[in-house]
Amino acid sequence: MATFLLRRFAQAALLLVIVSMIGFAILHLAPGGPLSQYAVDGNMTQADLDRLAEQLGLNRPLPIQYAEWFFRMLQGDWGLSYRDQQPVLHIILSHLGATLELMLTATVLAMILGVWVGTLGAVRRYSLFDSLATIGAMVALSIPTFWFGLVIIYVFSVGLDWLPSGNRYTIGDGSFLNRIHHLIGPSLVLALVSTAVWSRYMRSSMLDVINQDYIRTARAKGVSERNILFRHAMRNALLPMITIAGVQIPTLLSGALVTETVFTWPGMGRLFLDSISYRDYPVVMGILMFSAVLVLLGSLLADILYSVADPRISRQG
Amino acid sequence: MKPSVPNPSASSDPLLLIDDRTVSFAAGKGWNTVVHGVSLDVGPGETVALVGESGSGKSVTAMSILGLLSARQARTTGRVVFKDRDLSLLNADEMRALRGSDIAMIFQEPMTSLNPVMTCGAQIAESLTIHRGLNRSEAHTETLQLFDRVRISDAARRFDEYPHSLSGGMRQRIMIAMALACKPSLLIADEPTTALDVTIQAQILALIKELQDEEGMAVLFITHDMGVVAEISDRTVVMNKGRVVEAGPTAAIFSDPAQGYTRSLLSAVPRLGSMKDRALPERFPVFDRETGVVQASADMPDTVVREKPLLEVEGLTTRFTLRQGFLGRVSGRVHAVENVAFTVRAGETLSLVGESGCGKSTTGRSILRLTEPDAGSVVLDGTDITALDSKGLRSHRRHMQMIFQDPYSSLNPRRSVGDSILEPLLVNRLADRSDAQGMVRELLQQVGLDPESRDRYPHEFSGGQRQRICIARALAVEPKLIVADESVSALDVSVKAQVINLMLDLQARMGVAYLFISHDMAVVERVSHRVAVMYLGEIVEIGSRQAVFGNPQHPYTKRLLSAVPVADPSRRRIKRILDSREIQSPIRDPGYRPPQRRFIDAGPDHRYMEWNDSWA
User: Can you give the residue ranges of the ABC transporter domain (chain B) (predicted)?
Assistant: First the structure.
């Protein structure tokens, strides 16, 4: 296990370096740049702009800028936001809580719903439920997240006034119930796509398992259908789901970007969009690196969980 | 030991009675009937064998007894009476209460029949908690006793092990323990030993027999192997195409089969020891399926060219390195082939026999350099194959061809069989496209297929026909040597006999030499001129077929031969072999140096390795 972790960490570190290089390059090669917003201001002369560039270090060659950024980041200095001169790490961490709250809720929702729908679909294959679930998954996968978010707001906030239309809590309230109330809309929207994906994978995984020889063995020894499903089939069918969960993290992150914007949720997704429109490069890079770490940690966690859950995986490797 | 009493007629009060059972499977919009009005009975304590080739409906019949066929996909009619209860009238809960308690079942594939994420102990204990209402600790204690009953040592440790860490034989013991948990009066065993090695098969058969005597349990034994039938059953029911062909006491079925089908089936079964007085390989007699009329088979001519060997293998060694850890440290080596030497003459068949993991297949692959050997020389017709560069190797490969075990996966499904046979001709520039077409027809004819079938695709052929196509493809380049790796193992008895006859005919006609790799001792006895027995990567005994089979010297050869079931009920040999010796693994420590072996001559062209006690 130790060598396995060591190897995985080495791979992850290498990946992070590559991600940061590509991110940095794309960001700085894009037209415009952090100074373009100042250029709109008529009072700024070219000399002023050059001085600003000099101050921010933007006039140096790209590789040098990258190297400086990289080594500072390693020391924990992720730079200052161009917008309000706050430390980047501080800004990200202050938005992290909201995003994690939303993502975790959505994941739990998607897992429970997806596993349930998928299992039932497999057990009652070709039934009315199965057909509806199949169509439902197709629809859910085809709906753009932002549109679904708007529909939810239109129906449940504007129309029925059941749910708040945005924000994490009502200013001045912030009680647990109030927070939950605010969470319902965005987490449903974010969970929708994952639920569809999960239910499809769960269905095929379950179908695989219930045709296995050991399920026949269980039936031949008189295990009830209920226990065949829960004691014998479920654990086997869930094994591949662990890997899917790891792969789902990037989807969730990009889903959060849209959902947070629609629901004015004060998380990293919205911060990311805002920072891009302000051309706040240090924050954008910071979020990019942070999400990359999250994704890598997620898949690493999935692999570790898998080896714990499946006795066939040797743990020395 | 209590002798099992044969139960000649349908007993007066059968334990299990199947009456006019018909099973149909959903096929498109209609129903496809695979079992047609099957009737049979099993008396208390009796062993009844249900035999037939693949597709005969024997397993489906057995599955239908306990209602294990999915109701949506299968429709069954007819009565099943067990202990005077009509099982077809039971509801789902009553049926479930019967499964695993009074009627238990074990299956063919011990590798896949156990739940991979549950410990072995938990799976056995489950039966006890379901049917006997034991609590956790009672079930635990009882399970440990069951481990002992099926001769699994170190029960306490095995309880917490997962199935993947056990061998196939061990897993089948776990299955048996599970089946015995509630002391059933009937055990349905569906091909329980088919996937096992022959010495392990003997252990499992002996175990079933022994437990049956202890418990007074009846056994319905489903198998395709006439040897197993002859060894264990009191009565035999022969099935073909979903119908019972013949039923009666096993001894009578074997000595005096009434039906043509039974006769042709039995004639296709090689019987170990039947070749004692013959030096040359022999074809199987051909019976007409319907009438049972025998077609005299011509004697095989002596095809062996004695002047000089065609293939000389010297010191052949192939090892696989196992690596572990971050830096890929060598943690061990599989000594798959270790210092193997033999010769094959033109027109001769040398058989390599042994159990799984003995290195026989790797030896075959190493000779063709499909697996690169680590050391040794392979001289074919004066050319050292191991010294060739890749270009030279390619041109020399046409002198040696290979036929594999699985005719389903060794033909490209997207390519017509004609194209498959054509390819080696074109690749080796043996013919241009127009001539080659004619040669393909000729080759198909040679292997007994319709030349016009060359435009058809592999899925349109049966297993036996596909193996013929593989043979035709191998023959296309006119090889001097064909390595046949378990080439007939996956085929049904009668098809197996036909393919072997074809191979023998081709040898007589073309003088091709075979390296025949097989685990089936009875087939080997039939087809070989010479035999080499392999164990843990080494040849432990080699010699003329008559000498090795008639006068085996090495303890492993003796053990292997004594474990083979013989298709003759008057010569039952499976004694109470209640040892539980596992097949050893050829994985050794990185520092292992194989010892210097010494061979002892047992006669002209017969030698064996000096016995070493460290070899279990």
Answer: 18-266, 322-561
Q: Does A310 touch chain B (CB under 8 A)?
A: yes
Answer yes or no: are the C-beta atoms of A269 and A257 closer than 8 Å: yes
Element (H, E) at B438: helix B433-446
**CA-CA-CA-CA torsion sign (B439, B443, B446, B449):** negative
What pLDDT is recorded for position A125? 85
Chain A residues with beta carbon closer than 8 angstroms to that of B64:
none
pLDDT at res. B73: 82
Can you give the residue ranges of every domain in chain A?
A: 89-281
Q: What is the pLDDT of residues B325-352, one digit of tens each?
A: 656 677 888 888 989 999 999 999 999 9
- Counting as low any pLDDT under 50, the low residues of chain B are 1-11, 616
Residues of B in contact with A316 (CB under 8 A): 324-325
Instruction: From chain B, pick out residues whose CB is under 8 angstroms from the CB of A222.
Output: 96-101, 127, 130-131
Looking at this predicted complex, what is its ipTM?
Answer: 0.79
CATH label, A89-281, candidates 3.30.70.1340, 1.10.3720.10, 3.40.50.1980, 1.10.10.10: 1.10.3720.10
Q: At B372, is the secondary structure helix, strand, or coil?
A: coil
Rounded CA separation B61/B36 (Å)? 10
A262 contact partners, CB below 8 Å, separation of at least 6: A145, A146, A149, A150, A153, A186, A189
Report the DSSP beta bridge partners of residue B42.
B16
- Of A6, A220, A236, nearest to B100 by CB-CB distance is A220
Residue A60, chain B, CB below 8 Å: the answer is no
Mutate: best of B326, B327, B329, B331, partner A, most A CBs <10 A: B326
> Which structural domains are found in chain B, ordered by start?
16-267 (3.40.50.300), 309-609 (3.40.50.300)
- Compare A34 and A201 and report the one with higher pLDDT: A201
What pLDDT does B7 receive?
44
User: pLDDT digit string (tens) for A131-174?
Assistant: 999 999 998 888 888 888 888 888 888 888 887 877 777 777 77
Residue contact A311–B164, C-beta within 8 A: yes
